[in-house]
Structures are given as C-alpha cells and as structure tokens.
Amino acid sequence: MADILVTSESGALIIDGKAASAAVLDEVAKGAAELITSGIRPGLAVVLVGEDPASQVYVKSKGKAAETCGFHSVQHTLPVETSQADLIALVQKLNADPAIHGILVQLPLPKHIDSQLVLETIAPAKDVDGFHPVNAGLLAIGDRKRALVPCTPAGSLILLQKAMEALGRPIAGCDAVVVGRSNIVGKPMAQLLLAESATVTIAHSRTQDLASVVKRADIVVAAVGIPEMIKGDWIKPGAVVIDVGINRVAGEGLNAKGEPKTKLVGDVDFAGAEKHAAAITPVPGGVGPMTICMLMSNTLTAARRSKG
Ligand code: GUN
Fold first, then answer.
1. Which of 101, 174, 271, 272 is most buried, with most CB under 10 Å away?
2. Is the dihedral of CA 148, 157, 47, 134 positive or negative?
3. One digit per residue, pLDDT tens: the chain, 308 residues?
4. Burial tier of 12 (Cβ tally within 10 Å: 0-12, 13-18, 19+)
5. Which atom of ligand 1 is nearest to the CA of 295?
6. What domains are defined for the chain?
7. 61 with 293: CB under 8 angstroms?
8. Is 105 in the pocket of ligand 1 (CB under 6 A)?
9. CA 191 remoteness from chain centre
10. Is 151 in the pocket of ligand 1 (CB under 6 A)?
C-alpha cells in the first residue's frame, strides 16, 4: 500500500487517507462477498434523529459505503421530537433483528435524549461504533479479539502503522502524545497505542505547557477540536503527526452564492508542522475518510462473529 504515502516538497510523507480508506473498503467488500456465499449478508442499521445537516451528510455516506461493500443497509430517520423511549424501543428491535449485525446511532442526539443511555442499549456485539462500556472495557484490557474498536482511532492507527512501516521504525517504545481525552477518540487512541507498546501520554485542555509535552513526542495524535491549536514548531523533527481534527473556519473571498467562503482545517498547523514532521496526515483527506471504512470493517467483523 506504498501509494498511500506521497513525499511533499518539504520532504515529509503526506499520508493519503482516501487511498488507505479505498484499500480497506476493497478488503471489506471481498470479505463480505465471502461471508455472503456462506449464507450471511452483513447488515448495518444507521439511526438518525433530527435534521442536523452535518449528520445527514455523514449518515448518507455511511449508507453509501455499506451498499458499496455489498451489505444489507437500512437507515431509520426519526423526527427531532422522537421520545427517548421510542428511540430505545427501536434500538431494542434492531438488537433482536438477525439481519442486522451493526447498529449506529448518529451523534449528537437532541438534548432531551440521554445519549449514554441510548448507546448502552445497543447490544455490545452490534456496537460498531465501539462506544458501549463493554467494548471500551475490552479495549482497555487489550482484548481486541472480542472488542469492537471505535472507528476513528482504529483508522488513525492504520495510517500511523503505514507511515511507521515506510519509515522503518517500530511504534513500540516510541513516546506518543495524544492531545484530547474524549471517549470517542482520545481515550481509545491511547489504549491502541499502549497495546502497540508505545509510551503514552494523554494531554488535554488542562495540561500545563502543552508545547513542551508535544515537543518530546515521536508520535502526535491531535484530537482536541480546536483549529490549528498544535503549532508547527512544537513538532519534534522526524515525528509522525496524525491530525484527527476537522474544523470549519472562515476562508478567503466569497463563494458562487456571494457568501463568505469557509474551509476545513485540522487541529494541527499543517503548513508549519510538515516542515518538521517525517510524516503527517492532511485535513481534509487524512483521518476523515478512515472513519467510514472502519465502520464497514467493524460491521463485517460483527457479522463474522455472529456466525461464531
Ligand atoms: N457523529 C460524529 N461522528 C460520529 C461517529 O463516529 N459515530 C456516531 N455514532 N456519531 C458520530
């Protein structure tokens, strides 16, 4: 998969998440085809409550990817005023449906719904987001054979592994700094790096002198959700940088409709960081595309396990 790495003018390897994601989707489609011949068609149910435009876009691409992989794919779109009880009843129905191997409830949910309660209603074996405490616990005890791992950190690890392989360096023994401590990215990412035998630090909004913490890292994973917070000169020469952030900020000029343009940036100042890094993911086109392909990979895994 050498074609996922391109050398930039600064000499850094730019890690192409689109190419890596396409390769994973290809493998998943092949795996699904094999499973289908044995009588099981992987099934993914995506549940969307409300009309948040960003969530609508995500859910649509998840359904599309599922169809591309040959999965049985269903989408449940519920009105914003759906009660917590009705949403939980739907999740329970999907838990009991043998044609469904993966359930994803798109976040954020409307404020009147307790998201954690809903996520904990999903059967752990069908929790393809990997957000259920059972899956978080299995990951924490290093049992990846039974866990379903959250998609964004799982995809980030693949990109990191490709870059480290190309650089001829093991992850084991590296100083890895994860900036951000969310349950969705920061904490599971730290667990994955620990399982790879990195020495892991989790930094966050209350970390003192974040610059000097990042400066000692051989591997930096940025997942804070603050545009370009990690400055280029914080990056240790030769470090590998995985930028999980996707932040929409003001761009330059006006679009065709005469509105101010916007653009996507990561949590890392890319232009500054690529001067120091050995390898780095761009935004967009880095970690972003990996989330959906790992969701498909988790659905295939869940379907395979359902067979025993
Ligand atoms: N909203 C934004 N990202 C995600 C995700 O990975 N899973 C779910 N369920 N909702 C999200």
1. 101
2. positive
3. 448 999 999 999 999 999 999 999 999 999 999 999 999 999 999 999 999 999 999 999 999 999 999 999 999 999 999 999 999 999 999 999 999 999 999 999 999 999 999 999 999 999 999 999 999 999 999 999 999 999 999 999 999 999 999 999 999 999 999 999 999 999 999 999 999 999 999 999 899 999 999 999 999 999 999 999 999 999 999 999 999 999 999 999 999 999 999 999 999 999 999 999 999 999 999 999 999 999 999 999 999 999 87
4. buried
5. 6
6. 39-129 (3.40.50.10860), 150-288 (3.40.50.720)
7. no
8. yes
9. 14
10. yes
If you ran DSSP here, which 8-state letter would residue 2 be given? G
Q: What is the pLDDT of residue 2?
A: 46
Which backbone phi and psi does 47 adopt, to 5 degrees?
Answer: -115, 125
Structure tokens at 193: 């790096």
Name which of 151, 289, 282 is nearest 222 in CA terms: 282
User: What pLDDT shows up at residue 126?
Assistant: 98
Residues labelled as active-site residues = 62, 106, 129
Separation of 254 CA from ligand 1 center, angstroms? 30
Is 118 touching ligand 1 by the criterion CB < 6 Å? no
C-beta of 44 in contact with ligand 1 (< 6 A): no
> What's the token pair of residue 93?
């129905």
Query: Which residue has 């993914």 as its token pair?
Result: 44
Residue 245 CA from chain centroid, whole number: 10
Residues 6+ apart with CB under 8 A from 297: 24, 27, 28, 154
What residues does 280 pair with on adjacent strands?
14, 241
Output DSSP code: residue 228: T
Kindly provide the b/e burial profile for residues 65-77, where b requires at least 16 CB atoms within 10 angstroms of the residue's own CB: bbeebbbbbbbbe
